[in-house]
Structure formats: structure tokens, C-alpha cells
Please model this.
Amino acid sequence: MQKKDLRTAAGALAATGALLLTAACSGGGGSQAGPAKPAPVPVATTAPSPGSGSSAGPYAALGDSYTSGPRIPTQAGTPLGCDRSDRNYPSLVAKALGLTGRDFRDVSCSGATTANLAAPQPTSDGVNPPQLAALSTRTRLVTLSIGGNDVGFVALLSRCVQAGVLRSLGLDRSAAPSGDAPCKDFYTASGHDELGQRVQTAGRRLAAGLAEVRQRAPLARVFVVGYPALVPESGAACPSQLGLAAGDVAFLHDEEQRLNTELRQRAEAAGARFVDTWTPSLGHDACTAESVRWIEPLSPAAPAAPAHPNERGERGMADAVLRAVRGPF
Model:
């Protein structure tokens, strides 16, 4: 093993620890918690007065860290532990639509799961109220991007990085690895599709959340925003950028696609519009060059959390949302 390879492996392991620490400090969860019982959230009982709000708003943005934009300057809003940026995609969408003040509510929060739609979320600095509390009969536009933490994508990526590093160091002692995909081997060794079950569970919880959104904001147009591509379909750059074994690049690619497909199906079944951010993000994943990527690798070169959108990525997501909002519903 060359010194450069050892440094790369050590850096990948250190960055994985930082990724897990970021999730823990943000209240980021995995898929262990069951769906929370809906908390009593005030619902407006009066219809909006003629001329109140804009033709596009009021707008409420709900979601997790891919919405909030952790570490992208400038961090704003309360609680501070939600890691919201004033350049995240909801802020860019609101600005493009001319929505300010009462006509724009961003309640996204790093680490949020579908349970936090109806239940408060403790963070490292304050408690975020139930995200559904941002809705009322005045609301005319809702964006929602959530589900990755229900599946446990941070833990999945961290395990895949660790498995890739151990494989590169020749320390992988897993039984009968099938090719160069030690992380996939781990999750499929028993023949039980654990990740598939998590994705389906996230989908069911999203469906329940969308039903609640419709009840609280019956006149709103609702857009479920999918996740941009974290990794390419395959690629030699990923081992150096993310520490992944080559076969696990395809594994992570397919698992994220499976989550997006589930979100799309649940959105359409609920009468919501799905916003595809995957397609415009192709060629801009975490394994591409610093000058073009939307997602930062484990050691970010731009202000952003590891394995999360940078400012360019949030702008790309905003463009996709605006195309959907301005198109036919």
C-alpha cells in the first residue's frame, strides 16, 4: 500500500466520522423510529380574504437537510440547529416568485424525518416545531423533500465508505464477497432486502404526511422534491472522492434511484407533483470536478456539509422547482 493510498483511506475514514457527527448534531436520525402520532397543530378556520397573499403564495417549504442547506452561507432562521441557509432552494424559489414576509415560511430542518412533519424536532440548538404547523388554509404553495433520513442514508453512506476503505487496505474479512461491492454484500448477505423495506416504509409515511398537508392546506399546490444524484452510475473518481469501492458506487446510485421512484409514486398517488432533481443533476454528483458538482464529497471544497448540496446544487434544485411551479399542474 502506497503512502498516498494510506492518506486517502485515512482521510475518507476521518471524513466519514465528520459526516456522522454532522448528522448527530443536527438531530439526524435513521430509520429506527416509528411514525409519530400527529401532534395537535393549529389549523386556520377562516378562509383567506380577497387579495391576501400573492398569486403564487403564501409558500411553505418543508424538508430535511437537502432542503435546509447546512453550512451554506448565510445560515439564518430559527432554531439555529436546523442549519437553514438563506440561499437554499426554498429561499431562491421564494425570491424568484416575489414572496417575502408572511408569504414565505421555510421550516426545513437538517436531520428531519417524516415523523417531524407532525412532531417537534430537537436539534443541537433549539427545537423545530412540527413542520405541518407552517400550513393553513391561506397556503397556496408547498414544497416537501423528505425521506432520506427515514431510510438512513447517512448511515448507509458511512458504512459503504468504511467498507470501501477496508477493502482498499486489504482488511476486508467479509465472507465470500461478491465482486468489488463490500457494502452491498453487507446489506444483502442474508437475502433480506432491508433497504427496500426502509424505502417502502418512508413512502407510506410520506403518503400519510401528504394527506395531512392536503387537509391543512386544501387550496395549495403541493410539490414533492426528489433528491439529486449523490454518485454517478459508475466512476473511477468515486474511490478518491468518497472512499467507495467501485461496485458500491452503482449500489448507492441504484438505492437513491429506488427512493426517488418511491417518492414519485407516493406523490402522484396523493395528487401532488413530483419534481425531478435527479435528471438535471446528472454529471454534477459528488465525484465530479469541484467546478461543476452540485454535491460536495466527504471533504467539501465549497461551504456545505459533506455529501450534501452546495450553493450550486441548491440553485439547480431551485431551477427544477421553478420549472414545475410555473408549468401546468
Summary: The CA atoms of residues 157 and 324 lie 30 Å apart. The mean pLDDT is 85. The longest strand covers residues 59-63. The beta strands are 59-63, 104-106, 121-123, 126-128, 141-145, 221-225, 273-275.
